[in-house]
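A common beginner's mistake is to predict each chain separately and then try to dock the pieces by hand. The better habit, illustrated here, is to supply every component at once so that their relative placement is modeled jointly.
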Amino acid sequence: MIEAKLLIIDDEVEFASTLCQRLCLRGIETAEAHSGADGLVKIEEFKPDIVILDLKMPDMNGLDMLAEIKGRDRKVEVIMLTGHGSTASGIEAMEKGAFDYIMKPVDLGELLNKIQQADHKRSETQHDN
Amino acid sequence: MKWKNGWLSRVLPLFGDNMANNVVLEKDYANFGRSLFILLLILVLTPLSIISGLSHYQYKQLLQKEELTQLVLDIEQAESTIERFVSKLQSIIRFVGSADRYEELLSPDKLEALFARLQREYPDFADIEIIDSQGKQKSYIGPYQLVGYDHTEQQWYQEVLSRGVYISHVFSGYRQVPHFVIAVSRKHPDLEGSWVLRVTIDGRTLQRYVDTISTTSVADIYMIDANSVAQTQPRKFGKLGQVSRFHVPQQVHYDLSKIFPKHDGIVQKDAMVSVRETDQGQEVLRVVVALKDTPWHLVMVKEVYTHGNAWFFFQLRLFFILFSCIIIAVLVILKLSTSITSYIRECDRKREHFLAEAENASKLASIGQLAAGVAHEINNPLSIINQKAGLVEDYFDMTGSFQYKEEMQDALDGIQDSVLRCKTITHRLLGFARHTDVQTEEIEINVLLREVVAFLAKEATYNQISIDFDLDDTIHEIFSDRSQLQQVFLNIVNNAVDAIGKDGQILLSSSKIDQDTIEVKITDTGEGMSADVQRRIFDPFFTTKETGKGTGLGLSISYGILKKLGGTIKVQSEIGKGTIFVITLPVKHD
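With all components supplied together, the output reads:
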């Protein structure tokens, strides 16, 4: 059972809302944002534990957004979402603090697996503190 | 001057129009080489010919001048000798015929005694006679009895009276032997008119003198009269008493006035120099000079310089030097033009190769960018389809049974499968655009080749294709990316299997090129490729396979991988015989 709160930030509205719906159906508290700026606002309001973040958005680069999120709260885990399929971009994101990355089109099972791992890590960190 | 379309471009085509069109064919190189050879040859042979020609001309001038100078000096010397001799004869006869000795000489005894004394000194004196002022012979010592003979009507008699002295031509007369006459006239001291002393002299005396002054440096020397009748016996050109004949050649080889100008100081008097031709067609130089106070001319004939050794050996030497220089020049220029042509051909080949490489790289980069863009754009809607289908599936799971639920579930599965296929395609496109990073490790290339073949062994056996190896065991490990090399070899061997179809052979060989490079050859006995196909084989999306069977990316991806790994790939193919892919790889990848 995943207890973490999830925020999906992706400029593809249909994708973000559908994924949001599917995760909600699985009992995960999920919110969505459709731009970088909207995402930052939602982070303040919704206080997510895990962010699923698109690497490429019109108003903000995914890696900059990652740095911003991590700058505000290091405890928030970020899973990068990319259509590029580039190992290099994923690795770069992980070097900058992302928990993991997943390539589009997203296989929900794989995503849930990564969310679970991130949630587990987050829980462990909280216990340590 | 415009090179194109000119006559020069036809004679010396160089690269002609093809060069302007940037297409250079093998025959253009041959033309260029030939033109270069001709141009260089002209460049070298022109000054050589000019120098040789000038040398030839100068030496000829020198020889001509030298021979003319010598000839004129010789004739002047001979002229002077003969003139002195004739002058001496005249003096003797003048002395004998002193004005006051007329009476004394009329006495036959005294005349005979005098003649005897003269003959002792000059045996060639043939007779002597005294002619009175009436023109009648008064006294005579000689072989003929002509006393009383009247000379008044004869021309010589008139001449001697008017000029005081007369020297005749050489003639035969009654004697039938050549002779000439010297006569002097003297005024009677106490009577009217003049008496004449006439002496006949054997012509041999002149001959002896001419023979004495004749040298081997001249071909002939003799005397003629005003009518060109020989007065002495010529050695070669004519007969005594006959007209000496020479022909004026059709073409005189040199202008005597230029070679031997009058103001030169060498031709002092009236020497007439001319080029003549003998009856035998031989060209000779003929100099004629008038002997002072005589009816005679001295003639000297000399063979022209072209018959001399000096000219012959000069020409021989000149020819030898010129011929040697031409042979050396031709050989050197031939070597030079061949080398330059080969060098240009090699440079062009390299340039073409680099251009093709650059063009290919640029094409791959552009197509890569396009592919990445397309893949990215497709990925987003694909993700939406994927998620929407997933959401519908989620709702299905939450909903109870209803009509056609199963069929709709099948349809959803179909959508998911298609999304998965699209995902594979977009990932491959992205892979083409940007290969994954190189991960270097130690690889035994021979082992890797055997592993790759193992993947396709079943298919090959099924199609009766034998796969053989000719591997160099001395190749040890190389440092490269195992999975990417696997992909390359798999692509090529897979293509070879497809190209053969059924029943054929594939040979994989490996060898060392040098310490730093190895070579892998994959040879098949398939249908082969045309030159056009070979040229496009590494282009992305180019395929000869049936639609849906090949993406046309395999070889272009292999090309990109090998380039990234520091290697190369080349294809050699012939329709109906098969194809060879030649791959080189560095032993160590940086």
